[in-house]
Specification:
The protein is an alpha/beta fold. 31% of the residues lie in helices and 11% in strands.
Length: 389
Amino acid sequence: MRSERKVDVPVYDLSLIRGLWEVRVKKQRQRQKKEQERIQSSALARIDQQWQYRIYCKRLKTSERNLLHQYLERTTLTDVQHIQPNTEEKQQDQKDQQDHENPEQNQLIFQLNGDHWTDFPRELQWMTYLREWHVRGTKIRQLPDYLAMFTQLTVLDIPKNTIIELPPEIGKLTGLRELNASYNRLSRVPPELGDCENLERLELTGNHLSELPFELSGLKQLVHLDVAENRFVSIPICALRMSRLQLLDLSNNSLSDLPQDMDRLEQLVTLFVHKNNLSYLPHCLTNISTLSMIVVSGDELNCIPTKLCSNPSIKFIRLYDNPANEERKKEEDKKKKEEEAKRRRWREQRGEVVKDSREKEFIETYINSLKDRDTVPYSTTKVSISCLL
């Protein structure tokens, strides 16, 4: 008879192993923290920064270097101002005269154009005195980490790039008045943007946004909000709480209706809601006494308050597509949508989604031409014309 062999199976207490692992992780984190504190307290980083600053100053022109030094030493100059008041006044008069003679020297504007740029230049981090950024048509995907250092920034103009997100540090730019991030690849807006209480103009056209954070309700100074060509299915709640809003552009989205409390926007002057799925306009729009222009798509709109159409102080503009050969057009549109969907999927895989801004520019030009007229046409039909050369 064959004897059975017993196999000894080792038994381990997993809680002991987990405890040992947690102790090791804790010690490793403590070592990393001490190393980080040591690096921060070390003088090497400060020395490197000083040398980089000196190298950067060597590349500057004399006028630019003087302007930078004057900004960095401004606190020192204010301390000694009471000692030599006459000298300081003379220097200020001379500076004002030079600025008047050379107005370009006083421009604190940073400009960056061209698709060969994939990142911001390194020396930008020392130009914290800048007032405006204008970055267009680049392949930059994100804003720099040192953006919060530009506390005097009033204009941030970054359209037609490949930026995928706005950093939370943007909320520290409390002096910001204009932000244009149109035609990028934004899918969300940081709630910290609501801390920019002085913001007056916000343009987010041509992105992938479907909502705005409620924290943007704190933008009480905002007068211009442009979120056209996105993926909104309803008006953001925060937009209805921007009490000073004068222009609201929600065109080319997926809106099916407008809220019944639109009259919260008591100072609204211009409303763009064309290229949506609206079938009616709410009666509350008639309660907005400042409203002077409404642009809608007339193809599917079948219910309009009479007061909006008959009021001579309101320019009510209906935009129609070309009605000729509707069936043929539907078939062509269907084919185009299928082709565009294929191209979009292919571009999304390659990360090359690009939106066209020509249609929006055409609408803006057309609307501007109507502002000077006393009356507007009952409806407008947009006709596409192609020329074969």
